[in-house]
Design goal:
Helix content is 29%, strand content 26%. By secondary structure, the chain is an alpha/beta fold. It starts with a helix and ends with a helix.
Length: 472
């Protein structure tokens, strides 16, 4: 690994990459993206990993912001980047993984195998930018989160503090490497010696096979992936006994899903954690020996200030709902070239997550929803997560999203978008009657839309923005 990274670092320097330059990777989840990450940071450059599902116009928008000097991609995408050269003058070189390397491009394979003298790592400061991580952008223009070298120090020590990780652990990367999960796991490998198993594009059967084959011990992923595994329901066909820590993160998980997945996997319990790309990422994490009620996301991690506050910024009492805010060296440097967006999220040193939560008497935190995930039904506030919790327990429902729809009398009404389990049938009356038995009338959905599946973001979360657009 060290030899290949050294050769790539020398190659990047040869292509004119210097400290503070941006290098984009447009690669599938495989060894090449890990090698690129190490080589880019070794020369003090800024790594901007992009999801290969992005389209040309989306990429151009990001390139206009990031100003990359080098792009590392595969032969499949080299034509797209060759055509962009005239529009993006910052691009000096295109490095291509694969056998077919067109004129005007450089072979990644030749570069990594070309013997080079030892490259001395460029000295960096804690506050120097290591990554530009571009957010999903399902409802707005993508923002480039500036992650510093100091930010990257947090995840390995956070995980070790709560899960007692060691060199015998094998951590499976289940989410896209272009997500913050990629860099933090690649970094953990170097810092703690914990092996990373790269899953690649998610497929539930492939996920199970990879856990068995590589004896994976710990991992995190998002709720829709857990739902897909439950629907496949082939847990008993694989040896999953190596797993000791599985956490649902990245999106709200209902207590019902947490309980069912843990039972199906044969775990003592499925754990939860919480954080944002902007917070490096973890703010809270459940301990493996936790006996707290299901649905909690753990307690704030050591060394991180986390509060739950009201709209005036005052901390709310135990049991009351407020917004999660945090401050400290785990908070991002800001959004690249977007001071207004940075000022909107970081106020008086506190990063406002936009997530609503409550804290119990023992300090455990429970997510209630997003600040915008409240529906005002005739002056009565309904939390989306509260309605979704009820619907997730319906035996015929595979996945659900609750959104707001305009209502001429009450301003807003509740609409449930539902995907049923395979082979199941249901009517909107059946779903509405089920809800009416379990919650106050004003919280009950007034309409139900059935779909084969719900739209997802590039990181596997339900694309609520896309569902909301259909109601406007």
């Amino acid at each position: 690994l060290g030899r290949l990274v050294n050769n790539l670092s020398a190659g990047l320097i040869g292509e004119g990459v210097r400290k503070g330059d941006c290098v984009v990777t447009f690669l599938p989840d495989a060894m090449e993206i890990a090698l690129s990450y190490y080589a880019i940071l070794k020369v003090g450059a800024i790594h901007a990993p992009l999801d290969v599902r992005l389209k040309g116009e989306e990429v151009k928008l990001i390139f206009g912001d990031a100003k990359p000097v080098v792009v590392i991609t595969t032969s499949q995408f080299q034509d797209m980047f060759l055509s962009m050269r005239g529009e993006i003058p910052s691009i000096k070189s295109i490095i291509v993984v694969g056998e077919e390397v067109k004129e005007g491009c450089i072979s990644f394979n030749e570069m990594k195998n070309r013997a080079s003298s030892r490259v001395i790592p460029v000295e960096v400061e804690d506050g120097d930018t290591a990554l530009y991580l571009y957010t999903s952008g399902t409802t707005a223009k993508p923002k480039g989160v500036m992650v510093t070298f100091a930010n990257l120090d947090w995840f390995p020590k956070d995980l070790h503090a709560i899960w007692k990780t060691n060199e015998d652990d094998i951590y499976m990367l289940s989410l896209p490497a272009s997500h913050i999960s990629g860099p933090i796991l690649f970094n953990q490998t170097i810092v703690k010696g914990i092996a990373t198993s790269i899953l690649g594009a998610f497929n539930p059967r492939k996920w199970l096979e990879n856990v068995e084959k590589n004896r994976v011990t710990i991992l995190h992923f998002v709720p829709p992936m857990a739902n897909a595994l439950i629907q496949l329901n082939q847990f008993d066909k694989y040896d999953l006994s190596s797993l000791r820590g599985v956490a649902l993160m990245g999106a709200y998980s209902t207590p019902g899903l947490v309980k069912e997945f843990g039972e199906k996997m044969g775990l003592r319990r499925c754990l939860q954690g919480y954080g944002l790309t902007e917070t490096s990422p973890l703010l809270t994490l459940e301990s493996p020996d936790s006996n707290a009620p299901l649905g909690n996301i753990g307690k704030p991690l050591p060394g991180k200030e986390v509060k739950i506050v009201d709209e005036d910024g005052d901390e709310v009492p135990v049991g009351e709902v407020g917004e999660i805010v945090t401050r400290g060296s785990h908070v991002m440097k800001g959004y690249h070239n977007d001071p207004e967006a940075t000022e909107e999220i970081i106020k008086d040193g506190w990063l406002h997550t936009g997530d609503l939560a409550r804290r119990d008497e023992e300090g455990y935190i429970y997510i209630v929803g997003r600040t915008q995930d409240r529906i005002n039904v005739g002056g009565l506030m309904v939390y989306v997560s509260e309605v979704e919790d009820v619907l997730h327990h319906h035996p015929k429902i595979k996945e659900v999203a609750v959104v707001s729809a305009p209502d001429p009398k009450r301003g807003e009404r509740i609409r449930a978008v539902v995907a049923l389990k395979e082979g199941m049938e249901a009517t909107d009356k059946e779903i509405i009657d089920y809800c009416r038995e379990k919650m106050a009338d004003y919280k009950v959905p007034k309409e139900v839309e059935f779909r084969e599946s719900l739209p997802k973001t590039k990181t596997g979360k339900i694309a609520r923005g896309e569902l909301a657009k259909t109601n406007s």
